């Protein structure tokens, strides 16, 4: 039987203890290290060489989970990182996946869902918590969420790094109108940052 070795990353000791006990109950999963900060997680990857990392997104002081994922992926591009968090907004999902996470699991998942996610992620399979997968699928199926031609045009320019002032000049509209368009775009895409909006738009709208 092949054993999956795991590094747990979470800033709450009790959460780590609970997840360790749960995972160690399985004969084919072994927790070999823990980390309470993003920096500790990066160091632990180099020290212990786990086969899988479970990563919380909010890690208190220091770098957050997304930045930790990026740095871990710089160390080992083939090391799967499974996000294990309470945060389920589309913006959080997009940021984590863009950073290199192979999956996204919510902390209210059942033990069986957690076991399946760990085994699947370790095997190189993309894993999404059922509620997250369901919501993302519903969003992609909603025609009313399609961007208008003007919104798509604005996003194309936004992806080039333009400021609101530069966008206004390029589209001959006021900065206030730019902000209004951006608010509508964020709402349609379910994000709350410029970077996340561009990332989702490129993926769903085919904007280049």
Automatic annotation (TrEMBL):
| All copies of domain HTH luxR-type, residue ranges | 140-205
Which of UniProt's keywords are assigned here? DNA-binding, Phosphoprotein, Transcription, Transcription regulation
**Which intervals hold domain Response regulatory?**
5-122
Q: Which SMART domains match?
A: HTH_LUXR, REC
Q: Which SUPFAM superfamilies match?
A: C-terminal effector domain of the bipartite response regulators, CheY-like
Residues modified as 4-aspartylphosphate? 56
Please give the Pfam families that the UniProt record associates with this protein. Answer: GerE, Response_reg
Gene Ontology biological process terms, A to Z? phosphorelay signal transduction system; regulation of DNA-templated transcription
Q: DNA-binding: present as a keyword of the record?
A: yes
> What are the protein's GO molecular function terms?
DNA binding
Protein name as catalogued: Response regulator transcription factor
């Amino acid at each position: 039987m092949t054993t999956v070795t795991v590094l747990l990353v979470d800033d709450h000791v009790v959460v780590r203890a609970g997840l360790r006990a749960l995972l160690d109950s399985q004969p084919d999963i072994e927790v070999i290290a823990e980390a309470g900060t993003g920096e500790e997680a990066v160091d632990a990857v180099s020290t212990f060489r786990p086969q899988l990392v479970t990563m919380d997104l909010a890690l208190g002081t220091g770098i957050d989970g997304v930045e930790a994922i990026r740095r871990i992926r710089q160390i080992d591009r083939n090391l799967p990182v499974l996000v294990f968090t309470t945060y389920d907004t589309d913006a959080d999902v997009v940021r984590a996946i863009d950073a290199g996470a192979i999956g996204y699991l919510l902390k209210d998942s059942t033990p069986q869902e957690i076991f399946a996610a760990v085994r699947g992620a370790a095997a190189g399979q993309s894993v999404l918590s059922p509620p997250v997968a369901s919501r993302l699928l519903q969003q992609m199926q909603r025609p009313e969420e399609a961007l208008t031609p003007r919104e798509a045009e604005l996003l194309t320019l936004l992806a080039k790094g333009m400021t609101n002032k530069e966008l206004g000049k390029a589209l001959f509209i006021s900065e206030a109108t730019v902000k209004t368009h951006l608010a509508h775009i964020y709402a349609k895409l379910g994000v709350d940052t410029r970077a996340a909006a561009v990332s989702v738009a490129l993926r769903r709208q085919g904007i280049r």
